[in-house]
Write a structure and sequence with these properties.
Subcellular location (chain A): Membrane
Distance between the termini of chain A: 54 Å
Largest sheet of chain A: none
Order of helices and strands of chain A: HHHHHHHHH
CATH class of the largest domain in chain B: Mainly Alpha
Largest sheet of chain B: 5 strands, mixed
Oligomer: heterodimer
Structural class of chain A: mainly alpha
Number of helices of chain A: 9
Shape of chain B: elongated
InterPro entries (chain A): Cytochrome_b-558, SQR/QFR_C/D, SuccDH_FuR_B_TM-su
Radius of gyration of chain A: 19 Å
CATH architecture of the largest domain in chain B: Orthogonal Bundle
Strand content of chain B: 5-15%
Strand order of the largest sheet of chain B: 2-1-5-3-4
Helix content of chain B: 25-40%
Protein name (chain A): Succinate dehydrogenase / fumarate reductase cytochrome b subunit
Organism (chain A): Saccharothrix carnea
Distance between the termini of chain B: 58 Å
Radius of gyration of chain B: 20 Å
Strand content of chain A: under 5%
Number of domains of chain B: 2
Number of strands of chain B: 7
Keywords (chain A): Heme, Iron, Membrane, Metal-binding, Transmembrane, Transmembrane helix
CATH superfamily of the largest domain in chain B: Alpha-helical ferredoxin
CATH topology of the largest domain in chain B: Fumarate Reductase Iron-sulfur Protein, Chain B, domain 2
Order of helices and strands of chain B: EEHEEEEEHHHHHHH
Chain lengths: ~210, ~250
């Protein structure tokens, strides 16, 4: 196994992005499913959060996520720098292919990263949360999504994540050596967006309070 | 018909778009024949003709390559610039013509770029080892039909560079993958299959091409319709080359 030699290539950096992206996607799916416990009442989601701490899942997950995000970002940065240098600059250029999702991977990733910082300060640390009491997950979430601007910021971030996943899933599988249908990425993205957006929608409309 | 051409003129380090108006064009002319008409006029007027690459003019050699209105080889799908006819433009259109642009494709003059980076990628691994004695029997090595079809589809690559010109990352992955697939799926190409992927990608990167982001601009610009599946195949071979101990 020649990891260094592989990483030196552009394809190797993409493999790192594909594998770390898969790890992050796995976390996103579990997070989304965990969020859905909000529909079973305050005890369900508060209990779920408490259980995660009890089994000691929190810190190992944080370390793994930080490692994935770091590697994902470093590889993306290096590839972007190389692409910027390599690409041609035309007086007149038209796009003929390439989805919105594919074109916005880089800035979309930055938007998601910025949202994650806000999200941690809001619902993990509690500083930016109107309620902000550790352990009272249900109350914190409900306090958050009373405000239209929180809902809006959350929705924009989730849609950015959806676009990122739509191209990312397909591209990652392609990078790992298999061409699949682009519908797979779209399906995963729609499912994740629907799952995440259901919570602010339910709180804002009063279905969950 | 009448067309207004804005053509990139460059003789030193920098260039600019120069406007030429051509009247009396026939819709049956190819794009390159139109440039011939322009050049004849420029020569008669004592001006320097527009330099552009061309050879077979029947869409199979890969020499011609023009960015026409921002699209590699112009607006027609699966068509080289030499096979693009003026009937696909409207009378009175303004048409911008630029050379391929990418860091590894320096402009030599006007619309001519240096594509020797492609030659270096092929030299790095785009070959098969053959016994150099008498010619083998034609059917000595059976090739399954699906493999032959996949190889042929990739072998249709004429190395024109449209994939690089269209790529938002300046990547030559489609070209590299076409060559690696063309040889890598055939039994004759097996001995160097993995070292080929490794060496060609290494040369691709060293030449200054960017990495692929699977946007697919390349396949839609490709006059031969080389599919993105070739890139996945190359990626798989490269991964294998770097994850096994074998030197192959």
């Amino acid at each position: 196994m020649d990891t260094i030699g592989l990483y030196r290539t552009t394809v190797g950096k993409k493999v790192v992005m594909a594998v770390t992206g898969a790890g992050l996607l796995l976390y996103v799916v579990v997070h989304m499913l965990g969020n859905l416990t909000v529909f079973s009442g305050p005890d369900a989601i508060n209990g779920y959060g408490h259980w995660l701490r009890e089994i000691g899942a929190v810190w190992p997950t944080r370390v793994a996520l930080l490692a994935c995000v770091t590697l994902h970002f470093v590889a993306a940065y290096q590839l972007t720098a190389k692409a910027r240098k390599a690409r041609g600059r035309y007086e007149h250029r038209r796009r003929v292919q390439g989805s919105y999702a594919a074109r916005t991977m880089r800035w979309g990733g930055v938007i998601i990263a910025l949202f994650v910082v806000y999200h941690l300060l809001d619902l993990t640390v509690g500083w930016l949360n109107p309620n902000g009491i550790p352990g009272e997950i249900h109350a914190n979430v409900v306090a958050d999504f009373q405000h239209w601007y929180v809902v809006l910021a959350y929705a924009i971030a989730v849609l950015a994540l959806g676009f990122h996943i739509r191209h990312g899933v397909w591209s990652a599988i392609q990078t790992l050596g298999v061409t699949t249908s682009r519908v797979i990425g779209l399906g995963v993205a729609v499912a994740i967006c629907a799952g995440f957006l259901s919570v602010p929608f339910a709180v804002f409309t009063g279905l969950v309070s | 018909m009448k067309l207004t051409l804005r053509i990139w003129r460059q003789s030193g380090a920098t260039g600019r778009l120069v406007e030429y108006v051509l009247d009396d064009l026939s819709p049956d002319m190819s794009f390159l024949e139109m440039l011939d008409v322009l050049n004849e006029r420029l020569i008669t007027e004592g001006q320097e003709p527009v330099a552009f690459d061309h050879d077979c003019r029947e869409g199979i050699c890969g020499m011609c390559g023009l960015m026409i209105n921002g699209m590699a080889h112009g607006p027609e799908k699966a068509t080289t610039a030499c096979q693009l006819h003026l009937r696909h433009f409207r009378d009175g259109d303004v048409v911008t013509v630029e050379p391929w642009r990418a860091e590894p494709f320096p402009v030599v003059r006007d619309l001519v770029v240096d594509r020797s980076a492609f030659d270096r990628i092929v030299a790095a691994g785009g070959y098969v080892s053959v016994p150099a004695g008498s010619a083998p029997d034609a059917h000595a090595t059976p090739v399954p039909k699906p493999d032959a079809d996949t190889a042929f589809e990739a072998a249709a690559c004429i190395g024109c560079g449209a994939c690089v010109a269209a790529c938002p990352n300046g990547s030559a992955m489609l070209f590299t993958a076409a060559k690696a697939t063309h040889l890598g799926v055939l039994p004759q190409g097996q001995p160097e299959r993995y070292s080929r992927a490794r060496d060609m990608v290494a040369e691709h990167d060293a030449s200054g091409f960017g990495g692929c982001t699977n946007t697919g601009e390349c396949t839609s610009a490709c006059p031969k319709g080389i599919p993105l599946t070739t890139i996945a195949r190359l990626n798989a071979d490269l991964l294998r080359a770097h994850t096994t101990r074998s030197d192959r």
